[in-house]
Amino acid sequence: MSQVTALIDGNNFYASCEQSLDPSLSRQPLVVLSNNDGCIIARSSEARALGILMGTPYFKIHHKLEKLQVQVRSSNYALYADMSQRLMSILEANCEEIEIYSIDEAFALLHRPANGDLLSWARQLRAQVHQSLGIPIAIGIAMNKCQAKIANHTAKKIASHSGIFDLATEQNTDSWLESIDIENVWGIGRKLAQWCRLQNVNTARQFRDMPSGKLRAKYGVKAIRLQRELLGDTCIPLRTNPPPKKETCVSRSFKRPITQLKELQEAISTYVVRGGEKLRQQNQTTRSLTVFVQTSSFSSSFYSKSATTQLNQPTNDTTTLLKATMPLTEQVFRPFVPFIKAGILMQGLQTTKYQQQYLLANYKTQEHKGSEQLMATVDKINNLYGSNTVTWASCGKGTTWKMRRNRLSRASTTKLQDIPIAHA
């Protein structure tokens, strides 16, 4: 039995998540907006067919969307993250090994059965995901990651494939590689694509067949690996255990400019609380904290500043992190300056499996255990009843600076109060 790689991803994932939990959106043109309802970042198939482009600012196109009766939703990241976790759980149960590549994509390692047919497995997986989550997925099967990306692209592009394409069973792959523009080859960025175009290399097949020496001299071994993968070799293995993160950042743009220190402290506190949650989910602690702020880059008096502190003892305790960041907030604040964005950056991350002690720190084991139990309890309550059910007073209440999300859907999978009620 030969070993193959599959790329499985959700089609129009954000839009599909919205449609799966709101039947009124089914088969309707739908777009999802970025933070502060800024730009279009996801489109349903029906919206794509109307010619609506990704990245278009909402304020420029909202009249057109109303005229075309396109439904609009703000980004509901809690919903998308939960649906992603459910999707990956299904994939783990149906694949030998998977590498979670993004919120809606995963590479899978499979062994081809004796009859060589993986299409029936793929159809069953698509049916299971659609039945369980209500979202469509595409499955591309090939010899390696790079080819699997191409197979997945083909599965979605050609309707007759019904979302499944097995490139490894094709007798002649040249025609399929010829149909893929050089910009759509996985791993080829803008600069490499431009250079290839100048060399009259316009498709995946031409990239595969171009002289390796010339390619290596210009872009090194990484480009050669991509070329070898297009030839059928496996040069980029699955990463089933991703390396631990080296830093974690939480930042947001504000609904309106902030000029008051109290509001900036509330914003930074909110981001610190979220950062602490992330650290605990990652089983990590931080030793370094940075607070940064900035005004609009279009402002004539642009202002940007950051401040950093080092912790004696690495921690993921939210209370400790808040105490460390409040003085930093005062350092970066400037009166009457309209800040439009702020955030925190946590660096020097360490695993929680062991604690690197600081010789001069007064470390109390009992207090540390109590802190861990408190954070675990807070996280459990927030996971069960929704984000910020329990939070810290420094985050404020009824804040008006938070991100604009005027068209936010219900968090039907992560909040008890948002679960739909059926009246019989």
Short description:
The protein has 424 residues and is an alpha+beta fold.
* Overall pLDDT metric: 90
Number of strands: 13
Over all CA atoms, what is the radius of gyration?
25 Å
Q: If helices are DSSP runs of H or I spanning 4 or more residues, what is the number of helices?
A: 13
Overall 3D geometry?
Answer: globular
Instruction: Just name the CATH architecture of the largest domain.
Output: 2-Layer Sandwich
Uncertain segments are: none
The sequence of SSEs as H and E is EHEEHHEHEEHEHEHHHHEHEEHEEH
Strand order of the largest sheet: 5-6-1-7-8
CATH topology of the largest domain: Alpha-Beta Plaits
Beta-strand percentage?
A: 15-25%
Q: Which sheet architecture does the biggest sheet show?
A: 5 strands, mixed
The end-to-end span amounts to 52 Å
What is the helical fraction, as a range of percent? 25-40%
The first-level CATH class name of the largest domain? Alpha Beta
Number of domains: 3
Category by helix and strand content: alpha+beta
The CATH superfamily of the largest domain turns out to be Reverse transcriptase/Diguanylate cyclase domain
Task: Describe the protein.
The mean pLDDT is 90. Strand 7, helix 6 (145-157) and strand 8 (164-166) form a beta-alpha-beta unit. 32% of the residues are buried. The chain has 13 helices and 13 strands. The chain has helices spanning 13-21, 45-49, 58-67, 77-94, 119-133, 145-157, 174-178, 190-198, 204-209, 212-231, 261-281, 318-332, 365-385, and strands at 3-10, 30-33, 40-43, 71-73, 97-102, 105-111, 137-142, 164-166, 247-258, 284-294, 304-315, 339-347, 350-351. It is α+β, with helices and mostly antiparallel strands and 424 residues long. The chain folds into three domains: 1-170, Reverse transcriptase/Diguanylate cyclase domain (Alpha-Beta Plaits, 2-Layer Sandwich); 178-242, 5' to 3' exonuclease, C-terminal subdomain (DNA polymerase, domain 1); 247-395, DNA polymerase, Y-family, little finger domain (Dna Ligase, domain 1, 2-Layer Sandwich). It is 39% helix and 21% strand. Helix 11 packs antiparallel against helix 12. It has a five-stranded mixed sheet.
